[in-house]
Amino acid sequence: MIDVYAAAGTFADPKALARDLATALMRVEQVPDIMLFRKNTAAFVHQMPVNALSNVAGDADGVRIQVLTNAAALDREKQLTAVVELTRVASEAANDPSLADRTWVLLTEAPDGGWGIGGHAYLNNELIAAARAELGAT
């Protein structure tokens, strides 16, 4: 899951940004391009009034991208790549290369079983089994 927080108007097409961020995260995680992951890798763009955010200097033009993955989905190399790629996608979506300098990316992990969809909290081994089942079915 990806949550993006930015001042309203930062991104011309928030839905395209959400899709592109989710796609980039799937690439970084190196998960198979199967429906299980396509349906469960998503981004939510929160467009906030400009007076609802600020840094200490009073600037309201920063972007926060918070990523929640399952436990151990990102090793150090993938963490570094995720920050670079998600920052790049956001900067391009804003048509503002300088946005990279004002984009925070927070990488967090849910504990095993600490996230769910469809009323079920998934363990990592359950996700692996579901992915293998889908891959075997194609």
Tell me the distance between the termini.
25 Å
Percent of residues in beta strands?
Answer: 15-25%
State the helical fraction: 25-40%
Order of helices and strands: EHHEEHEEEH
Number of strands: 6
What's the gyration radius in Å?
Answer: 16 Å
Mean pLDDT figure: 94
* Structural class determined from secondary elements: alpha/beta
Main sheet?
Answer: 4 strands, mixed
Strand arrangement, major sheet: 2-1-3-4
Unreliable segments of 5+ consecutive residues: none
Q: Globular, elongated, flat, extended or rod-shaped: what is the shape?
A: elongated
Number of helices: 4
Account of the 3D structure:
The structure is a single chain. This protein is of the alpha/beta class. The chain is built from 4 helices and 6 strands. The chain has helices spanning about 15-30, 35-40, 75-95, 125-135, and strands at about 1-5, 45-50, 65-70, 105-110, 115, 120. Strands 2-1-3-4 form a 4-stranded mixed β-sheet, with helices on one face. α1 (about 15-30) packs antiparallel against α3.
